[in-house]
Write a structure and sequence with these properties.
This protein has helices at residues 10-17, 21-27, 35-43, 61-72, 82-86, 108-111, 128-140, 158-164, 167-170, 178-187, 225-229, 248-263, and strands at residues 2-4, 29-33, 48-53, 76-80, 97-102, 118-122, 145-148, 173-175, 190-195, 211-216, 233-235. The chain is α/β, with parallel strands linked by helices.
Length: 264
């Protein structure tokens, strides 16, 4: 364990920089914070590079055991003062531990195979809470892969990470352009099903046959027109009250679970 008492330490400055999207994209690394999510990261064999703890963390016996486990795996541990530690996280009520991980970069060809039947496409989902909740729900609903199109929020944003509740490590998440995604899915016999308010087809009155790629669009503007035009089916969730629409994460959850019934 390495003790750090200066905020000007290079490792502190480097870790702090990863709170910003630009640095994360450049370094291909991101921060996770909290004891529970660090344990999940180890269970999922995530690419954990090193860990920071504050002065309080190692006082609990279960935390000591966890630190021993990290050391046995050869993962470096840095201990910082409470004040310095707070500069590296974006929460005030910290649990006193964070980890830095490498991205898992995935592409369409190598990460969607013949056994995959259910893919989720996200078009410009921008709210971190929605994104994290959708990833977590997709994990629960047995979605095989999530394709993120240009304009989506950075999935390694700390708020997204927290909202996934660990599913960030389990889900097969792929970044692709819209043309790349549509061409690949069509070539591999996926039916593109888009959530769209201006249709007469209700989701619960629709049959979902074969391989399905479900599209969920931007919170304010929905799915872009070009992707709508390339969809095989358009569906909507009925609104029985006075609300104009549903939250994107709620819509995604309802549709994912309905479609999954046909694919089991």
């Amino acid at each position: 364990m390495f003790n750090i008492k200066s905020k000007d330490n290079d490792k502190v400055k480097y870790t702090k920089s990863l709170l910003k999207t630009k640095a994360r994209n450049k370094e291909k690394k991101f921060i996770i914070e909290g004891y529970r999510i660090l344990t999940l990261a180890l269970e999922c064999d995530a690419n954990l590079e090193y860990v920071f703890i504050n002065e309080e963390f190692e006082k609990k016996q279960e935390h000591k055991s966890f630190l021993n486990l990290l050391e046995n795996k050869g993962i470096k541990i840095y201990k910082a003062t409470n004040k310095i530690f707070l500069e590296m996280v974006d929460t005030e009520n910290t649990q006193g531990i964070l980890g830095v991980l490498k991205y898992k970069e995935r592409d369409l060809v190598n990460n969607i195979n013949g056994d995959h039947k259910f893919v989720l496409i996200l078009d410009r989902i921008q709210d971190p809470g929605n994104m994290g909740t959708i990833i977590r729900t997709a994990d629960s609903a047995g979605v095989d892969a999530i394709i993120l199109l240009k304009g989506c929020v950075d999935i390694y944003n700390p708020k997204v990470i927290r909202s996934t509740m660990g599913s960030i490590f389990d889900m097969n998440i792929i970044h692709a352009t819209q043309d790349e995604a549509v061409d690949f899915l069509k070539e591999n016999d996926f039916n593109i099903v888009s959530s769209y308010l201006q249709t007469d087809n209700y989701y619960h009155e629709t049959n979902y046959e074969g391989k399905i790629a479900l599209v969920i669009g931007n919170e304010a503007n929905g799915i872009n027109d070009d992707l709508i035009s390339k969809s095989d089916k358009l569906i909507k969730i009925p609104i029985y009250g006075k609300a104009e629409s549903l939250n994107a994460a709620i819509s995604a959850a309802i549709l994912m679970y309905e479609i999954k019934k046909y694919l089991i």
